[in-house]
Amino acid sequence: MINVLFFAQLRERLGCEKLLIDNFSGNTAEHLLQFIKLQNPQWDSIISENKILVAVNNSMAKFSTELNDGDVVAFFPPVTGG
Amino acid sequence: MNAIVRVQREDFDLNQEYQLLKAVNGQCGAVVIFSGLVRDLLPPQQLLDLTLERYPSMTEKSLNALVVQAHERWELLQITIVHRVGKLLPSEQIVLVGVSSAHRTNAFEAAQFLMDQLKTRAPFWKKESLRLAPQQPVYSQWVAAKDSDEQLAQRW
């Protein structure tokens, strides 16, 4: 099971704050995002057209980061704090 | 390693933070404090307010990671990072980064490093509520990340 979170304008545009994925068989964060797009084709253009960052278990990660069962994976736009 | 990291809705008091930064011990010879404010838009546009969203469980962790990096890189006495969330009005304080050290160069460099990294690595997002002109309707938009901020972060 993987917990997926969305933040800021990505959350607003998808209309989704969190997802529970329990049938994911890929390896990386990139695979997970592709899997989410396949399961939610209406999100394809939103995910494909916007720059997205990824964090795994509360740390910034890469799309090549390998995932494990129980991970919390967050997708969000480039940050604008400060 | 001395550090204060806080994410809060309430405003902060510069003098109070300054007193904490310089009170570390008798070795303190320099305190650098940066304070970031909500900037209004250029007329005729008008900013009504700014809302800061964050990723709660990751925010403090990412700020603490920056504190560790700064302490590894420079000889510092104390670091303070305070970042506000929620709704803020023009001219309100958003963020404070304070660094104390024996010598000013370390404090200046570390403060700049921390701000550059915070702006591109810490999970905060700004949404602004604005008018294009005084009589125009109010609308909201997310603030876009700037390439120049990413370039500043990469110089370190």
Summarize the structure.
The complex is a heterodimer of chains A (82) and B (156). With 82 residues, chain A is of the alpha+beta class.
Strand content of chain A: 25-35%
**Unreliable parts of chain A:** none
Largest sheet of chain A: 5 strands, mixed
- What's the total number of strands of chain B? 8
N-end to C-end Cα span of chain B = 21 Å
Instruction: Please bin the fraction of helical residues of chain B.
Output: 25-40%
List the defining traits of the structure above.
heterodimer, A: 82 residues, alpha+beta, 5 strands, globular, B: 156 residues, 4-stranded mixed beta sheet, 4-stranded antiparallel beta sheet, 4 helices, 8 strands, 34% helix, elongated
What this model shows, in words?
The complex is a heterodimer of chains A (82) and B (156). With 82 residues, chain A is of the alpha+beta class. Chain A is built from three helices and five strands. In chain A, strands 2-1-5-3-4 form a five-stranded mixed β-sheet. In chain A, a hairpin with a 2-residue loop joins strand 3 and strand 4. The mean pLDDT of chain A is 96. Helix content of chain B is 34%, strand content 35%. Chain B has four helices and eight strands; from the N terminus they run E-H-E-E-H-E-E-E-H-E-E-H. In chain B, the strands form two sheets. A four-stranded mixed β-sheet of chain B has the order 1-4-6-2, sandwiched between helices. In chain B, strands 5-3-7-8 form a four-stranded antiparallel β-sheet. The radius of gyration of chain B is 17 Å and the shape is elongated. The two termini of chain B are 21 Å apart. The mean pLDDT of chain B is 96. Classes of the chains: A alpha+beta (82), B alpha+beta (156).
